[in-house]
Amino acid sequence: MLSFRPKLVDCLRDTPRAQKIADVFAGIAVGLVALPLAIGFAIASGVSPGTGIFTAIIGGFLVSALGGSRVQIGGPAGAFVGLIYAIILQYGLPNLLLCTAMAGIFLFILGAARLGSLVKFIPHPVTTGFTCGIAITIISSQVKDFLGLETGELPAEFLPRMRALAAALPSLHWPTLVIGAGAVAIIKLWPGRWARVVPGSIVAVVAGTAAAWFWRLSVATIASRFGPDAFPHGLPAFRPLTFDWRHLGDLVRPALAITLLGAIESLLSAVVSDGMIDDRHDSNQELMAQGIANFTVPFFGGIPVTGVIARTATNVRNGARTPIAGMTHAVTLLLIVLVAAPVAKFIPLAALGAVLIVVALNMGDWAEFAVLHRQSKSDAAVFLVTFVLTVIFDLSVAVEVGMILAGCLFIKRIADTTQVSILDEHTAPGQGHEQARNVPPGVLVYRVFGALMFGAADKLDTVIRRMGADTRVVVLHVAAVTALDATALSALEGLHEKLHRHKKHLILSGPHTQPYFLLQKSGFLDRLGPANVVGDLDAAIARSRELV
Hints:
two-stranded antiparallel ribbon, alpha/beta, 7% strand, Transcription Regulator spoIIAA, 5-stranded mixed β-sheet, single chain
């Protein structure tokens, strides 16, 4: 049964009036922070700045109003920049809108099916690898505007893009570089105590715009790049999506990439905010809200929406404790569009590029590179592979390969912990093993430890290899086997059949609950014989003595 209960429902009822007022002021502050980011991420993604604003307004309002977190802020994110840019180049903007709507459906299904907790199983090296890779992608996408280089449309691939930027370096525009560098300096040096009132990114953008206007600098602006109507007044009209049924299957893969990235980003942001306000979010409700937002924004020309950590943290630091703040942030952006659009179109692209470069530098977990030598080789390999693939290719390839590689290494680790060792009178109990006492001649006793699954099932071959001509009974002491799967069950079947053909016997000692029920359900216990399944090692040796 579908459970749909936004956090807003409880917050409206239980929150004091003073806190609601504080949330309104926090939302206004976050709206000021979100303005340059929404514009910058839109431009970096290859769409108009107005598209980023509309996405933050509509998507941000829906995420806060319907989500499972008290303080989550939704909007366009830097994590999507490279992915959106590549989808537009390969499939076109109309198909990007369709991919976003499809991702919305997938996200809602994940939440409705109560699968939100599965995102936590994505390994840390994968998430840090693609986060650092995304940061590099964002920085490389802003070099052109930050330096004022004269290039055509940059390629989506990293290496061709860097070659194009290197070839264009002689066209470096010094006034543009000065504005960009000045904006970075303002953001970095802006006092933290003032940032609660006026964010450093807003000051940098306003200062860059004023400098370009006062000194009549010939730098690229939003208006010069996108035209005087880059910021339409009011919200865009509802527009149905257009698509071709014949090519719909080609869009499933990019839509799944948007789904996975949106789920990871939003739930990571919600977890971070939980720690800041000592709360616990509803991951399934959050995914359903993200799904509704991503399904809705394409009908207004918007790009993918997700929860964003930096803006959410800013929201909390400004005193927010309910979704009212996130909804206010969306309304603040709407008012800015309605009032300040004529001025905003003169913002220099170098100033926006500076904002995004600082955001990218902050989002990357660069300390991960310094500790690679202290990590296991497998974790380091997963991190580096995911990072390189994110930078060189795209996020969907990186996450797919990273997850497959992490899964394979996880299987290997599980297999390495599984042991099959012989037990006899010489096995010391102090080594963590049971001691097999008075084992009759012709009886081999083995202790199986760990998860006996498909990665480790071949270790049962040890039993077959060590059997001699005088072996009459094999005892498998499986009290330390925590899990059993179909592959290991098949290996047990093979061992039993081989012993049975040679008039020999197999005894299982002390199986746990999960292995026992699987063996029973498959009918293996019936074929083995109830008398050959015993509760402990002493009973197994006693049974083997009867058979010998």
